[in-house]
Specification:
By secondary structure, this protein is α/β, with parallel strands linked by helices. It is built from 8 helices and 8 strands; from the N terminus they run βαβαβαβαβαβββααα.
Length: 199
Amino acid sequence: MKHILLIEDDPAIADPLSYALAREQWQVVWHDTGIAALAALQAQRFDCIVLDVGLPDTDGFELCRRIRQQWQTPLIFLSARNEEIDRIVGLELGADDYCGKPFSNRELISRIKAVCRRSNETETASVWQHNDSAQTISYHGTTLDLTRYEYRLLRHLLAHPGQTFDRDQLVNTLWDHPDHIDNRTVDSHIKTLRQKLRA
């Protein structure tokens, strides 16, 4: 389950948004002040931050600046201040998106998914490099010594970050003759991959 930090001082906005996010399998941590939000960031890792510009104890723009000094978590501004200059300032300070009030929860959740997807793709690309023609994968600059099916398995998992697959799905997708493959074969390949990544 993904974790999201919601920093919003208006319960009329925070309550229904938290409910909508929970229905999408997000674990929501809601705080209505900047001080509490910074403490939450120190205490746990979040996959996304939704930040209201107008908070009772600090300016949301200033809070964003402080957050960016320590964390690169995807961040979306919420604000009734929806002039072009406000959006520009928010994005220049490091926000990944800017959503003006009023907004629909459905639209905001789509924006959250989009910034998280971009973040995952960027993070994955910076750590992994693959060459499909040579069937090689590098991890932190080191080319891994992979068998054909280890390569297929790792390449498939990297292409679908955050998704889970059962053994039958992996066998039917990746193996040439799935009818002759035992599920323990998948377990063996995953175990070997883990050992090679730790080496």
